[in-house]
Amino acid sequence: MTPTHHCLLVRDGTFAAVGEGGDITGERGVSPDGLFARDARHLSRWQLTVDGGTPTVLVPTPTGPAADRAGSVLTQPGGRADAPAFTVFREQAVRQGEFLDHIRVNGNGPQPIEVLLALTVDVDFADQFELRDDHRWYQKPHAVRTREKLPDGIEFGYRRREWHARTVVTAEPAPDAVEETGSGARRLCWRLTLPAHGSTTLRLRVAAHPHGAPAPAAEEPAGAQPARRFAPEHAELARACAQGDADLAALRLPMTGPEGEALRVPAAGVPWFLTLLGRHALLTSLLTLDSHPELGHDTLLALAATQATEEVPERIAQPGKIVHEVRHGELAHFQQVPYGRYFGSVDATPLFLVLLGAHAERTRDDKLAHRLERAARAAVSWMFDHGGLADHGYLRYRADEGGLANQSWKDSPGAICFPDGTPARGAIVAAAPQGYAYAALTHTAELARAVWADPDYADQLTGAADALRERFLSDFWLPAEGFTALALDGDGRQVPTLGSDAGHLLWTGVLDQPRADAVAERLLAPEFFSGWGLRTLAAGQDAYHPLSYHRGGVWPHDSAVAALGLARAGHRPRAGALADGLLALAAAHDYRMPEVITGYARADHPEPVPYPHACSPQSWAAAAPFALLTALAD
Hints:
Layout lengths: L6 E5 L2 E5 L15 E4 L2 E4 L1 E6 L5 E4 L9 E7 L10 E10 L2 E10 L5 E10 L21 E7 L2 E8 L2 E10 L4 E4 L5 E9 L4 E11 L25 H16 L1 E5 L5 E5 L11 H10 L5 H13 L19 E2 L3 H4 L7 E2 L5 H16 L3 H5 L1 H13 L3 H4 L36 E2 H20 L4 H22 E2 L4 E2 L2 E2 L5 E2 L5 H8 L4 H11 L32 H13 L3 H16 L31 H13 L3
Helix pairs in contact: 1-15, 2-3, 2-5, 2-15, 3-5, 5-7, 5-9, 9-10, 9-11, 11-13, 13-14, 13-15
């Protein structure tokens, strides 16, 4: 079931979804509530009662942009008394591995009163994959749950063979009693005496101890980012960047590097993807490279640490390939889902090389490029030996051999399709990854030449990049449309669907100037540009659907990549027009860029129509304003 009210608290790989009065009820479905860390739910019930009843909510927890803290105001159950005897002020917060709940009870009258306050607590340690809306249940043989009373609270434990997780609930002052409930939960009880017009405060701390959690990474000091100056005409962009800063800070995820060093990388999004997704982290880092180079630094190290070293067919892993998704939950650990380290993307590997080269260029610091030379050469080898460049001339994937339905950024079923909606079959050569491959080869050639002192390798990569570009311009161009095909299918036929992927091709520089000019003009035409951003498929094709994730929806990061590409190709006025639409979209969402909206035209609907079930906050959406800042720079 879908909850009617959720407040999201997010920080450093931990998030809590609580109801309007700060409670957690254990809901499942599209957006379950609870406290989550490393893909497991570490708090499934957290329900406050006062004098045996549920308090009345006077001020609910906010449902706007996620933050790391929130408050609510409650009063006595029933809420019909003319002068309630007490008021409850609740302040809640998350930080890495912790949930804090401070409950202050104020007596409102001239006489002392007694209040019985109780908190029902339980932990199901459910894996996030169990909580998705398909309601699948997984076998968990030999799993043991424990509940141990502590002097100041309760400890919940879960063990399945070597897998062990704990949640420790402590309170100050300690509860007067800890009671068992019929459901197996525990009820912590306090009998409070409030002086006349006085108050008392309970301070509760929930510490999640997930299996295999790394040591906490040091947070950046406040104000570590340089202050950005904005011209008056860019006030909207300033506000969008400020919200993007806040979201990126909330979404930074603790990871470890190749030598065990503590890192903080951009997680993909809340609620389902508070984890490392290779493509998302790489694109987020590339979009924010000018403003947040530390994201790129840590992302590269984290991905080098998880780079494949052997073939594992069920994970679609081959030596040198960059990971698509990393999961830490119980089901991934016991290989009941394949996502512990899952390599089902064809584009993360070239994007890794693009980021490595761009990071060295932008920061003018080649230490990381030296350190990751071996990882970079392995990634290049994967593109040729396993990705398809050597044998087939292109990066390609076969979704019919298992894994995700598609393995480029439009990875939903049916996303790579003909104009009538028929899915492309066989070994798919999607357009955007070929642009990434071209950029990867050119960036790595420059590293080989300028940093690694290997001119022969540089010449080899430059030759491969030139040959790829020549093939691509011949095989993918649609002369009648003045545009690029979405893909080639398994028979080598063009998939002549018009998609926003062409904006990514502009960004990578794989198009020559005449084709770049034609694509730039078409992207800002009404069938693509909704007024808010670019539709993933141009309207007017049978395959287009305004509520489709990848066949008509509008993604801010996708449009931001196109804005960078337009600027690179010399089409700054068009980049500015696209930026204006995106900033209007941000303004309509309290300056938080949504992950995706529907494709309905702004001219027909003065407010953007939301896409159901989008993540919020989401990292590459949060990064989009910074890409606009780069695209609009003089």
